[in-house]
């Protein structure tokens, strides 16, 4: 109230202030328009480049890491920073031909071509032919099951018994279906690689066989009755599933060890009055009462009891991961939103026996007492969330955040700057989770959720720490760098020289909690340190240095200073789009930093804390496609245009006025293709492609695995003969 009154006084006492502010804004805007450096280049214009060009490296001949050849690091490849003042002059006016443009659109089952050559054994094992014909296509469909061989002899030698879980139909959860092959004209990824991550690039996903079990097609129970989704309780299904498999997982996790040990913050510090910072125990009570008790009755009498193998006396507990789907009050959930949430729960949680658990993380924008009023908490859930998801919903608000982190600056606690604060609150209560995915509700996986997330984690686990931060800060462009583990690694090593990260930086304001390097210098390590170590952070785009990048939030820092250390000296890293997997260790460290009053902008939060504390962070180069046929040299110049060929610093594509380069990508918050390609895939017309009539002529869209962002408010654009608000199938 005091803040509001002060604002009113300030505005009321000086009416001329508004005039001066308006004049300054107009003048600043005029200067920006005058300067060509701030013009956002249209993506379709940048198809060829002038000036010195980096030379592409040869593609790898095999994946065995036996190449003896090292990329030639020349002056032209060592430092190619676009001169932004000449950016407009370098745009080529002639667009690509119609044949080349838009190759990512309009690909259907009628154009599938199977890839020749050997495939990874685990990918071959994941598919099996289905005997029944698919009514809308002459191609044979295959079941797709990328899960471990549960309860096999090998499995039982190290795991407790896997108990299958029941889905919304009353039967065990079934697998989805795919088609073999890939559309013949579909381009290769501009960034990232299928082979590198272990994705099967020779399977294709069509909407009905992919999303049919979740409502695209009619779903019936064991008695043949159509499912009423409002009677399904995905929260209960997940909890029952976890109980059936409780021998596999820890029932709880350790306390946050850094609260007592880090920076001399004893536990007693939080034993204060309710009006100040709540105790750790009080926080747990306030949050846990939302979850405890309501599902207990559903687990009693369950006949499925997990067992240990007879030849085992102990079992290694499996890690668990929470996936938090970010949403907010006022959000209108489309039918497609519901389909996607159902698929996440079924594929990640139910089918795995509880390895994952999916939650809706709802930002309560209204002024409501969700901290102490249970009835108000439940009222908001029932008013804002579809009924089937009520009991998997976790509410948070900025007021609640400020009670937990009273030392944070008010601006730092806003969701725009403190997106992870709610994730940290969740993880302080739910200690049973080893990892958490911060997941955007407007992202879409064309592919299988478990397959994608497992292989991102597998890749990250294999990465050595030597040169990791340097590899992280570059888009991986196969058409320019060649093989990741040979040419790209050597390229980064050569171009970085001695300017490389080796452990946590030595700063007077940080006492790092991460492991120290096993040897004094990276030259003494043969890419061994870190191999087999789980990543504390996994991102889907480069982790770059925002200093001097012109990225708009590069200097948003609160705390992280002392009398001898100004905040602007803080080394930091960032990733655009906050969808990422974070370890409990990293989350706990962030929690304590925020208790101290230290914070950076959301896109920098996980990356900067991992960097400062010497934790393992990995950019996993998922496949990203473009709607223009840029070659590797062009992509490297325009997206790794910073110092020494990095994606940050001067010339960064994430800088102000340069983000237009992403307009034709399948992953960036300003990109156009994600919505269009997803609409077409669902059978909706968009930009002249898709819809019932188009599909009668061309066939159903079918796409290889990829992650799209942003995809917002998906609604039918063409319903054909149907008048219902339902996906066509």
Describe the structure.
The protein is built from 24 helices and 17 strands. With 729 residues, the chain is an alpha/beta fold. The strands form five sheets. It has a seven-stranded mixed beta sheet, sandwiched between helices. Strands 2-3-4-6 form a four-stranded antiparallel beta sheet. Helix 15 packs across helix 20. It is globular, with a radius of gyration of 26 Å. Keywords: Membrane, Transmembrane, Transmembrane helix. This is Major facilitator superfamily transporter.
| Strand order in space, largest sheet | 9-8-7-10-14-12-16
Q: Helicity, in percent?
A: 25-40%
Amount of beta strand: 5-15%
Q: What's the rounded overall pLDDT mean?
A: 83
* Bulk shape: globular
Q: Helices and strands: which structural class?
A: alpha/beta
Q: Give me the count of strands.
A: 17
Instruction: Give the uncertain stretches in residue-range form.
Output: 1-15, 29-98, 262-301, 308-313, 719-729
Radius of gyration from the CA trace?
26 Å
Explain briefly what this protein structure is:
It is built from 24 helices and 17 strands. The chain has 729 residues and is an alpha/beta fold. The longest helix has 20 residues, at 15-34.
Topology:
Elements: H1 2-13, H2 15-34, H3 75-78, E1 112-113, H4 121-125, E2 127-129, E3 141-144, H5 153-156, E4 176-180, E5 182-183, H6 194-197, E6 203-204, H7 207-211, H8 234-244, H9 257-261, H10 280-288, H11 296-299, E7 321-328, H12 335-350, E8 356-363, H13 374-384, E9 393-396, H14 398-404, H15 419-429, E10 435-440, E11 444-446, H16 449-462, H17 468-472, H18 478-481, H19 484-496, E12 537-539, E13 557-558, E14 580-583, H20 584-595, E15 599-600, H21 602-613, E16 617-619, H22 632-639, H23 673-682, H24 692-698, E17 706-708
Parallel strand pairs: 7-8, 7-10, 8-9, 12-16
Antiparallel strand pairs: 1-5, 2-3, 3-4, 4-6, 10-14, 11-17, 12-14, 13-15
Pfam family, one: DUF3405
Transmembrane segments: 17-33
Biased composition (Polar residues): 58-77
């Amino acid at each position: 109230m005091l803040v509001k009154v002060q604002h009113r006084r300030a505005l009321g006492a000086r009416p001329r202030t508004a005039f001066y502010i308006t004049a300054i804004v107009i003048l600043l805007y005029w200067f920006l328009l005058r300067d060509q450096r701030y013009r956002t280049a249209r993506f379709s214009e940048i198809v060829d480049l002038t000036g010195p060009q980096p030379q592409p490296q040869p593609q790898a001949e095999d994946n065995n890491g036996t190449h003896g050849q090292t990329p030639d690091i020349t002056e032209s490849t060592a430092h190619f920073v676009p001169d932004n003042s000449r950016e407009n002059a370098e745009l080529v006016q002639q667009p690509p031909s119609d044949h080349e443009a838009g190759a990512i659109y309009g690909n259907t089952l009628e154009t599938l071509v199977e890839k020749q050559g050997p495939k990874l054994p685990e990918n071959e094992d994941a598919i099996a032919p289905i005997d029944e014909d698919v009514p809308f296509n002459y191609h044979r469909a295959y079941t797709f099951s990328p899960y471990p061989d549960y309860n096999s002899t090998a499995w039982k030698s190290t795991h407790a018994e896997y108990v299958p879980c029941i889905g919304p139909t009353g039967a065990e959860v079934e697998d989805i279906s795919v088609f073999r092959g890939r559309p013949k004209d579909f381009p290769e990824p501009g960034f990232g690689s299928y082979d590198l991550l272990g994705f099967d690039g020779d399977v294709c996903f069509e909407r009905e066989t992919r999303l049919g079990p979740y409502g695209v097609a009619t779903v019936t129970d064991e008695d043949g009755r159509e499912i009423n989704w409002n009677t399904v309780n995905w929260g209960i299904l997940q909890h029952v599933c976890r109980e059936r498999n409780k021998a596999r997982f820890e029932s709880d996790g350790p306390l946050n060890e850094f609260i007592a040990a880090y920076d001399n913050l004893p536990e007693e510090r939080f034993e204060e009055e309710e009006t100040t910072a709540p105790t750790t125990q009080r926080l747990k009570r306030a949050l846990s009462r939302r979850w405890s008790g309501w599902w207990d009755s559903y687990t009693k009498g369950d006949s499925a009891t997990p067992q240990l193998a007879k030849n085992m006396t102990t079992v290694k507990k499996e890690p668990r991961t929470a996936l938090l789907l970010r949403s907010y009050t006022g959000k209108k959930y489309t039918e497609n939103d519901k389909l996607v949430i159902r698929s996440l729960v079924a594929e990640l949680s139910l089918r795995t026996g509880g390895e994952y658990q999916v939650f809706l993380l709802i930002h309560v924008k209204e002024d409501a007492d969700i901290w102490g009023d249970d009835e108000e908490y439940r009222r908001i859930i029932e008013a804002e969330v579809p009924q089937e998801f009520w009991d998997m919903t976790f509410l948070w608000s900025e007021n609640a955040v400020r009670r937990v982190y009273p030392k944070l600056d008010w601006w730092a606690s806003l969701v725009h700057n403190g997106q992870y604060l709610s994730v940290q609150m969740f993880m302080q209560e739910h200690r049973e989770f080893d990892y958490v995915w911060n997941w955007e509700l407007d992202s879409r996986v064309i592919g299988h959720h478990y397959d994608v997330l497992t292989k991102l984690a597998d890749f990250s686990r294999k990465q050595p720490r030597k040169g990791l931060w340097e590899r992280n800060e570059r888009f991986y462009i196969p058409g320019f760098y060649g093989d990741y583990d040979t040419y790209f690694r050597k390229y980064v090593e050569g171009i970085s020289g001695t300017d490389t990260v080796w452990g946590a930086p030595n700063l007077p304001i940080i006492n790092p909690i991460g492991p120290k390097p096993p040897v004094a210098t990276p030259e003494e390590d043969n890419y061994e340190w870190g191999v087999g170590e789980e990543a504390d952070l996994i991102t889907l785009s480069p982790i770059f240095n925002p200093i001097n990048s012109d990225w708009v939030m590069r200097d948003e820092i609160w705390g992280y200073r002392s009398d001898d250390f100004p905040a602007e000296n803080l080394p930091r890293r960032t990733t655009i789009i906050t969808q990422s997997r974070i370890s409990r260790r990293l989350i706990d460290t962030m929690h304590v930093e925020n208790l101290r009053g230290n914070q950076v902008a959301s896109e920098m939060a996980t990356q900067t804390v991992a960097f400062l504390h010497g934790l393992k962070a990995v950019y996993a180069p998922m496949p990203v496609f473009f709607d223009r046929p840029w070659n590797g040299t062009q992509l490297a110049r325009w997206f790794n245009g910073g110092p020494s060929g990095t994606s940050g610093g001067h010339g960064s594509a994430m800088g102000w006025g340069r983000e237009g380069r992403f307009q034709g990508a399948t992953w960036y918050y300003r990109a156009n293709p994600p919505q269009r390609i997803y609409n077409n895939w669902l059978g909706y017309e968009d930009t002249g492609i898709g819809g019932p009539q188009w599909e009668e002529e061309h066939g159903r869209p079918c796409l290889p695995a990829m992650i799209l962002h942003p995809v917002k408010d998906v609604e039918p654009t063409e319903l054909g003969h149907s008048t219902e608000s339902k996906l066509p199938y």
